[in-house]
Design brief:
Length: about 250
């Protein structure tokens, strides 16, 4: 354990004790404790994982498997602004492909990478559960909705100028080009997750993320008649007038 971390641990210990005391089962404190260390270090260091494991009487492997599961935790240093863009189906329908291409171009980096100045990290992630406000992203875990290219440019300018509403992450260590860890490259033929069908290595840094949203969209379009039938059936039960309008518009379009 580094001297620097030892000092942080002693400072945070009273707060950690308070957090653990809130739960009937101490194991439930795993996520809040991990968040607390990430808040202060800007990532979840190996020292932090070991300290959390010790406090909760868990094995370090249990803590690491939880931390590695969530895209909200970073096991290596990241940029001051972590930009996580949703690549799910609803966002793909609402222009996520263009937004992701725009961000990659503006930042000059790809999926899972950090800019050389350490200001931005960029990642394409699965559905953020805000499909009604697609396309959307999270910035340092805060949601940003209804994305447009102009909105992205304004947001990056505000971050560069230090006026963005969401505070930058703590940055106690200089980030490398990527925050992926070596173990991730050893799982599932080089990819952390198997990803969508026909997509190899979706979690390798530097390129595009998994294109599952696009693949889903292609499937829906390929089965357009089936899905239109199902939609009309549902609308006929819930909103007969709306179903009639949708049907008439679809007929007129063909
Ligand atoms: S698909 Fe983007 S929030 Fe659900």
């Amino acid at each position: 354990m580094s001297e620097e971390f030892r000092a942080l641990l002693e400072e945070l210990r009273p707060r950690c004790v308070e957090i653990v005391a809130q739960y009937e089962d101490s194991r439930s404190a795993l996520l809040p404790l991990t968040h607390l260390f990430q808040e202060r270090q800007g990532f979840v260091s190996r020292d932090a994982m070991r300290a959390v494991a010790e406090m909760l009487a868990l094995s370090p492997a249990v803590v690491e498997s939880t931390v590695s599961f969530y895209t909200l935790f970073f096991r290596r240093p990241v940029g001051k602004y972590v930009l996580q863009v949703c690549r799910g189906l609803a966002c793909t329908i609402n222009g996520a492909e263009e937004i992701m291409a725009h961000l990659r171009e503006r930042l000059g980096i790809g999926h899972l990478e950090t800019t050389a100045d350490g200001l931005f990290s960029y990642e394409e992630v699965e559905c953020l559960a805000s499909c009604d406000r697609a396309s959307c992203m999270q910035v340092n875990l805060e949601f940003v909705y209804d994305l447009t290219s102009q909105g992205i440019d304004d947001m990056l300018a505000a971050m560069r100028g230090g006026t963005y509403a969401t505070a930058p992450m703590a940055q106690t260590h200089v980030p490398a080009r990527t925050w992926t860890v070596e173990q991730d490259a050893q799982v599932s033929n080089g990819a952390k997750s198997a990803g969508a069908q026909g997509q190899s290595h979706p979690n390798n840094a530097g390129g595009l993320g998994d294109r599952s949203g696009l693949i889903m969209l292609d499937r829906i379009v390929a089965n357009e008649r089936f899905f239109r039938g199902r939609t009309l059936e549902r609308l006929a039960n819930a909103e007969p007038t709306l179903a009639k309008i949708v049907d008439e518009e679809a007929e007129a379009a063909h």
